[in-house]
Records
---
Amino acid sequence: LTVVPDKNMIHTIFVAGATGDIVFEKHYKAPVPRSVLDAFFEALTKAGDPEEVPPCIPSSRHYLISIFREKLFFIAVVQSEVPPLFVISLLHRIVDTFVDYFGQASEKKLQQETVIVYQVLEEMLDNGFPLTTELNLLKEMVRPPTWMEILDPISGTKRVKETLPTGQLTNIQWRRQGVKYANNEIFIDVIEHLDAVVDRNGTTIAAEIEGKMMVKCRLSGTPDLVMNFANPRLLDDVSFHPCIRLQKWSSESLLSFVPPDGVFELCSYVVGAQHQIALPVYVKPTIIFSEALGSKLDIEVGLKQSMGKQIEELALVIPMPKCVNSVSLTPSVGSWAFDQITKTVRWDLRKALVDRPVTLRGSISTAAGEPMPDAPPTISVNFRIPHFASSGLKVSRLDLVSERYKPFKGVKYTTIAGKFQVRA
C-alpha cells in the first residue's frame, strides 16, 4: 500500500459562471479563499472565449484545473502537482453525475438542488480523494430527487442511506443486487465526434474522431455479455469502464463484461491519423476583404462521399472582423443571419443538402478607414448524421451468456461535428 501525501489531494472544488460569479464551493480541507481564483479569471479575460481558457493554471501556491461545461466552470484547487488528466476526468464524472441526477447541470438547477449537490460531492470524494464515482452506487447512497419531491420540496424523509449499497459487498461493485425487469432490454449508442481542419482547397490538414459507447441496460439478474466487432482494430486507443475484462479484450478482441444497471459509458476511443478518415462534406470558401475593390463572400457546400445517409442540422458559422458593418447574402438553399454583436454569419441548411452543391453568395460592407484583416476567417461547420459511424466501427454481435431469457437488443450510430474547421 502506497500512502500518498495529504497535500497531493484536491483541496476545493469551485463552480463559477462565465461572468465570474461563484455558484457554490466545496472544501475538503481547510477552506481556500476565493481570491485563489484571481489567476483563473485573469486567464479567462485574456482568452475571451470560455472554451479557450487553459485547463491547468498555476497560481502563487496552488494549481487550478478546470473544465467548461453547461456554461459553467468546474474548478479543482490542488496544492501540489497531480496528473491533470486524472483531475479533468474526475470533474467530467462529477458533471455527468449531476446531469444524470437533475437532467442538466445548469447554474439554476444546481442552486435549486444545493443540498443534493453537496451530498453527492461528499460521497464522491473522501478528504479530496475519489471514493465513490460509480453512478449506481451513488444512487443507492444518495437518492435522486423524485417528481413528488420536485412538486413538493418540503419533505421529512432522509435522502442519504445509513447502510452500505449491496454492490459494495460483492466483487461487482458497479451493479446492485436483485435487479428485476418485466421486459429485459439493452440499447447501445455509438456516438462519434468528428474533428477536422481543412484548407481552402479541400485538403485535410488534420482529422480525428472521438467516440464513445453509451449503454442503457435494463437486464434482470447478473447478466454476462460478450460483444463482437466487425473491425476491432479501430479500437487501438480506447478507455474502458471497469466492468470490462481486459484480458479477454487483449487476447480475443472481445468485450466481455457484467454491465451496471441503467445508463453508463462502456468505453471511449480515439481514431487518429493512422486510420483513413473520410469527411462527409466539403466547403469551398472565397472571402475577400478589400476597401478598393469591395469585399465579397462566396461559399459552396456539397457532399464529399456517397454515404446514403441524410445529413441533419447542417450549419456554417463564419466569424467576421470588427470592420464589417453589414452583409448582404443570397443562399441557394436554407436561411442566413448576421449577428451585429458577435459579428458572425450563420447559414442554416438543415436537411437541404442531398446530392447537389449549394451556395451562399453576396457582398460585405466594411467601415470606411478601418484596417482590413490580414487573413480571411476560419469557418466552423456543424452537422449531425444519424445511423452512421464515420470511423466505420460496427458492432456485429452481442450475446448474453449467463441468463436464460432473451433480451431485446439494439445498436444506434450517430456522427456529430466536433471542431470541424475550414480555413477560408
---
Amino acid sequence: VDMTALLLVAYATLVVYCGAQRSLAPSSLLDQEQLPIDLTWRQALMVPLFVSAVLLTMYMVFDYIQLVVILCNICVAGFCFFLLLLPWANKVMAAVVTASSSTTQRRAAVLTAIVAVIVTLAWVVTSSWVLLDILGAALCIFMISFIRIDSLRVIVLLFVGLLLYDCFWVFYSDRIFQNNVMVHVATRKAKNPIQSVADQLAVPVGKLPHVELPAKLVVPTLFRADGGQLMLGLGDMAIPGLAVALALRFDDALAQLMPVPTRRHGYFTVALVGYVVGLLMASFCSQVFHVAQPALLYICPCLALPLVWSAMRREQLPDFWHGHTLSSTKTALPP
C-alpha cells in the first residue's frame, strides 16, 4: 500500500472517529430539541433498495437533472460544513467575546455561516479536491452523528444488505448495463452551475471547471509519474461509522452503569481498529488487482466479527445484540 493510500485511510479514520464522537451529543449541533434519527431493522433492510434506486437514477438520467443535483449537493454540503464548525465557533466566541449567551451564539452562527458559504463557493469555482474532501467529511460526520443505531442486530442487517449492494454494483453491474455503474457515477462530473447561469444570462465568466459531487474522498497519487487519484466513497465511511458510533455509545452506556465512572470498555477501540484493517485490505487488493474494490466487502467483516467476538467473550452479546443498555440509558454528553 503506497503513501497516498495510507493518507486516504488516515483521513477516513479521522472522519469516522470525529463522527462517532459527535454521535454522543448530536443535539449540540443544532438546538437542544433536535433529536437524531433512529434507524430500525425494517428501515435497515430498505436502505440497499433505496440507495440502489438513487444510484440507478443518477446513472440513467444524470445529464437531465445534473443542475438540480449539483445545487442540492451544494446546499447540503454547505449546511453540513456549517454544522461541523458551529460547536467550535460557539466555544471560541464564548472565550473571546464578553456578551450574553444568546448574543454570543448568534454571532458564532453568523460567522460560521459566512465561512461555510465562502468555502462552498470556493469549491464550486475552483473544483479543488481539498475543499471537496473537507465538504465530504462534513457530510459524513453529519450522517454518523444524526443517524442512530442502538443494536448490533440492526448494524449486521445493514452491513449484509449494503455488502450485497456494493458487490453487485461494483462487480456485476457491467454485465447488465455494459458499464460499471458504481465507478461511472462516482467519477462523473457536473457542469459548473455558475457557468450554466452565466451562459443563460450571456455573462462572460471564462471557463469554469466541472464540479465533482461531494460523494467521495479524493486524494491525488503522490508518487506516480502518470498521475491519477485514489477515491473512497462516503458510504464506505458513513456506514461503518454508524457501527463505530454504536460501539462508542455502548461503551459510554456501560460506563454510566459502573459504580466508578470509567470509559474504558474497549468496544470503540475494537471497532475503530477493525475499520482501519478492513480499509487497508481494500486498498491493498485494489492496488494488487488494479480494479475498483467494494470496500465494504472487507470493512464489514473486519468490523462486525471482532465486535461480536468481544461481546461474546465478555458475556454481553445479548445486551449488545438487542441494545437493551442503550435503550435504557441516556448517553448524550453535555455540549
---
Amino acid sequence: ACACACACCGTPLPDQHHTFGPLVASSRHNHFLAQPHRPRRSHTNQARGCGRSFPGCPRASLFLRICVLWSATTMDNPIVPYDQDTATQIVAFYRTRDNSTEVAQARAVKTAPMSSSSQGCQCIPTRRTPRPVQLDAPLQLDVDLLLAMSQCPLNDNNELHMQTLQTIFQQLTGTTTPCERKGDHWKDIGFQGRDPATDLRGAGFLSLYQLVDIVEDKRFFRAVKQLFDLSQHPDQGFPFCVLAINFTSLCLRSIRDPKMSKLFMAAAKQPNFGGSAVLSTVGLLYRACFVRYLDLWLEGGKPRSIMEAGMVWKTLQDTCLANPRRFIATAENFQ
C-alpha cells in the first residue's frame, strides 16, 4: 500500500495516484494528479514518499490549479503523454470525462425477454437466473468506464479517436503512411464500408479501444496477424474488423454476467496485482477470443471454409459464456 502524502498539508494521497492517467481529479482528497512520468518539479509540489508530482495542494499556485482543471475537462482534444501507447491514452481520457449519460444508456440496454411460445412447457421449472454480484466502488467504476465507451460513437473532432484508427490500420497493414478518414482502404482490413464509424453501432468506440489494445500487445500480435492474414484469403476470407467488433460485443455480454463479476473480485484480491482488475480481466477475455477463434478456424490441420464461420462463432460464444474462467485461461496460457 502506498503511504504517500502531500509535502505541504500532509494529506494522504490515494493509492490510485500511481496508476491514474494524466490530470485525473481525485474525488477522495480533491487533489489533481499530474502525469506521473513527467513531474514538473519547478511548478508543483512533490508527494512525500514516492516523488510523484501533483498540483492541487491548498498552497499550490491558484493559476496552476485552474489550468489543470481546464485541461482535465477538455474533451475533444485530450492532453495525453505521447510516450504512452494508444490504449493507455484512451483509458486516461475516459477517466477524465463525465460518463454518467453513456453509463445510463448502456444499463438501459437489456436482452429482449423470450416469448411464451419459445419457452416451452410452463410446467417444467426454468433454470434460475443468477443473482447479480455487488462490486466494490473501484471495480464498478471501471465496469462503467467500459460501458460508457460502448455508447460513444467515433468522433472525427477527437484527435485520440483518429489516432486510434490510424494505429489499427498501420499495425495491421505494416505501413507507416497515414491514411484517409474514409475510403476503400478500410474494406481491406475488414470493415464493411468506406467509413468505419458505420460498423461501430453495436459496441461503439469500445470496439476500437480493444482492437488497438491488442494490436499494440507484442505477446498477442502474432495471433492477431495470423488471423488477419487468414481473413485476406481470396475465396475463404472474412471481414476481420467486423469479427473483432463481434468479439467486443461478446465481452459486453460477459461483463453483465455474475460469473465475470466474481472474476473481477478475485483478480483484485491477488497479491501484488497492479492496474485495473476489470480492464485486465476483460482484456484477457478479448484476447482469448482471438486465440480460441484461430484454434477453431485451423482445427483439423487446414483452414475452414467461410460456410463454417457460423458454426465456429457459435462454438466460441457458447464456450465463453458457459465458463469465462476456463475461456480466459486460453489467453493466459498463450505463448
